């Protein structure tokens, strides 16, 4: 194993560790907080988190074994099962992000009727559609025997070894990425652009009220005026940064792998195996970044994490105090005798 392979293996190990811890923490927050569970986005987050954990404990270790051994990491049946799971989880992850963006769009554009438009039942129907949509392609690939170990990506995924099926497989691969990656990307752009438009409109209204107030308050201290103007600037940038993070991480993680899969269909362009594995690692890194982008940086999840941490520390302090009390009583007993 050369230095490139060692670096890619280290990247995979780091991605697995971060993904496992972060997604497990999101699950703990969902289990701990009833307020989070009562909201419709919790179903989308739960679906995304469970998919990320499944990818972390099944697909990533097999890819790591493929990178290290430079050969199929498992038997043919297990590899086909892992390829089925890989294709399903990739589509499910992309469509779950699109569902979360639709939820944000409804919440921002229709704030007064959000609870009526996005109930838990509606969220469950969206998750059910996501599963059916994501299951359709790996089921078709399984029926056509297009699942197995792909040497370019050192992983069990979509692949075709028969030259006479090259055109059919190219059409299938293009359709899969168009109806998963491209569809989700279009939904993300449309919904978040509308959210950004509404956020900027509200910022302008707040800015007008703030400027009118500053004009009326003649005796206001210059430092207070500067803080108000800085808060205006931060308010304008806050929504743009969040939306750029949502769309940017989606593109950064999935686009290299999708583009590589499409370029691979053209035999005129040779692709390095190191780049193939790196693009797969970038796709896996979405499982490690999703908990922070969609959950752990939000106020509700931060509060839930603090409550979990304080409860764990409180139990430890009670246990340690109980042990010290027991040892103290044992030391006193011989003296009393």
TrEMBL record:
<keyword id="KW-1015">Disulfide bond</keyword>
<comment type="function">
    <text>Orphan receptor. Displays a significant level of constitutive activity. Its effect is mediated by G(s)-alpha protein that stimulate adenylate cyclase, resulting in an elevation of intracellular cAMP.</text>
</comment>
<dbReference type="Pfam" id="PF00001">
    <property type="entry name" value="7tm_1"/>
</dbReference>
<keyword id="KW-0472">Membrane</keyword>
<keyword id="KW-1003">Cell membrane</keyword>
<feature type="transmembrane region" description="Helical">
    <location>
        <begin position="243"/>
        <end position="263"/>
    </location>
</feature>
<protein>
    <recommendedName>
        <fullName>G-protein coupled receptor 26</fullName>
    </recommendedName>
</protein>
<feature type="transmembrane region" description="Helical">
    <location>
        <begin position="43"/>
        <end position="69"/>
    </location>
</feature>
<dbReference type="InterPro" id="IPR017452">
    <property type="entry name" value="GPCR_Rhodpsn_7TM"/>
</dbReference>
<dbReference type="GO" id="GO:0007189">
    <property type="term" value="P:adenylate cyclase-activating G protein-coupled receptor signaling pathway"/>
</dbReference>
<feature type="domain" description="G-protein coupled receptors family 1 profile">
    <location>
        <begin position="22"/>
        <end position="294"/>
    </location>
</feature>
<dbReference type="InterPro" id="IPR000276">
    <property type="entry name" value="GPCR_Rhodpsn"/>
</dbReference>
<keyword id="KW-0675">Receptor</keyword>
<keyword id="KW-1133">Transmembrane helix</keyword>
<keyword id="KW-0812">Transmembrane</keyword>
<dbReference type="InterPro" id="IPR051880">
    <property type="entry name" value="GPC_Orphan_Receptors"/>
</dbReference>
<keyword id="KW-0297">G-protein coupled receptor</keyword>
<keyword id="KW-0807">Transducer</keyword>
<feature type="transmembrane region" description="Helical">
    <location>
        <begin position="123"/>
        <end position="149"/>
    </location>
</feature>
<feature type="transmembrane region" description="Helical">
    <location>
        <begin position="169"/>
        <end position="195"/>
    </location>
</feature>
<dbReference type="GO" id="GO:0004930">
    <property type="term" value="F:G protein-coupled receptor activity"/>
</dbReference>
<feature type="transmembrane region" description="Helical">
    <location>
        <begin position="6"/>
        <end position="31"/>
    </location>
</feature>
<feature type="transmembrane region" description="Helical">
    <location>
        <begin position="81"/>
        <end position="102"/>
    </location>
</feature>
<dbReference type="InterPro" id="IPR049579">
    <property type="entry name" value="GPR26/78-like"/>
</dbReference>
<dbReference type="GO" id="GO:0005886">
    <property type="term" value="C:plasma membrane"/>
</dbReference>
